[in-house]
């Protein structure tokens, strides 16, 4: 269902508490279901992706109750899971699909997973192949490249695996399989990807070592239920950080934003581009540190985004591209081939849709080049069913001269169900 947005270039003023971090919310349910005993979660993201994760574990026999953003998980532990009588449906969630491949491979269960049409096009062998090296039995279309996937659980052996590309999902799937594997599982990263899995392993009582990009986990460890406090999602906050920087006469305060150092690349880019921004850490000793971030209308300049920072902001590149259209000079984004295998090909999607609004932007093999500063006009945009493309279009509407139509704004609910409420709350 299409949505037409016209904001007449308002100023944005006010406070926002963004929803819980999607990556941490997924993992809180997964680890709570692996662990023995009771796990409580506060600040859980009630987005469609995370609710799919809950549904999958309920089908595995785990007792999970949701009360607002509080979740209670009572689990007998992974050995107490029961074989599901129906297919596990993961919807649009790549995190659910890929991480559960690792978990299910080490059980005694036979399971089948599938997702929506978008998931059916996303590559799964990057996870399936290293799991097969551990002894996993995974079948699927194109030798396990695409869903639906069938997993026959069984005994696993640890591997020492060098990551060919920085991917927290691949790393996490291997580590989750490693919990059940015989021996010590080692994952080696040249560029560090987000480390929520390593942090949460420790929260649930596991011993995991991380040194110079090498993660090691001894198999056979038992996890115990605990409490998980989910921080606000910096990937969701990024859209309002950019909005506050590019909308006229604006000042937005974002509270309880997760600032995990493997996720905070957007803050570094904003600082390099000259944003008027302050970051005040709430509790740097928390399992996932948080901050209060204030952003104001800024005179911005172009920059180059490349190399090791890319895994720290891969989900924020669509909104960084919009930011670049309002920044003086040239912005170059490269080393971002991973964008091609997200919910859609985000390189092509970002370039195609921003061009419709008048942006001076061109795609490259591994990113894009944007010339700014460019005034934007109205237009009709495709979201491709991708929440990040949808939110990018909505933020563009705040500064565009004319109406911006989104063909499917409902997809934004995957990660940010209250997105438009929060926009309306700060319009002035």
Automatic annotation (TrEMBL):
Pathway(s) it belongs to: Metabolic intermediate biosynthesis; chorismate biosynthesis; chorismate from D-erythrose 4-phosphate and phosphoenolpyruvate: step 6/7
Subcellular location: Cytoplasm
Residue positions of the active site: 315 (proton acceptor)
Enolpyruvate transferase domain location: 11-422
EC number: 2.5.1.19
Catalyzed chemical reaction(s): 3-phosphoshikimate + phosphoenolpyruvate = 5-O-(1-carboxyvinyl)-3-phosphoshikimate + phosphate
Keyword Amino-acid biosynthesis found: yes
The entry's keywords: Amino-acid biosynthesis, Aromatic amino acid biosynthesis, Cytoplasm, Transferase
Chain residues that bind 3-phosphoshikimate: 22-23, 27, 167, 169, 315, 342
NCBIfam families (UniProt xref): aroA
Family: Belongs to the EPSP synthase family.
PANTHER family: AROM/DEHYDROQUINATE SYNTHASE, PENTAFUNCTIONAL AROM POLYPEPTIDE
Protein name as catalogued: 3-phosphoshikimate 1-carboxyvinyltransferase
Species lineage: Bacteria, Bacillati, Bacillota, Bacilli, Bacillales
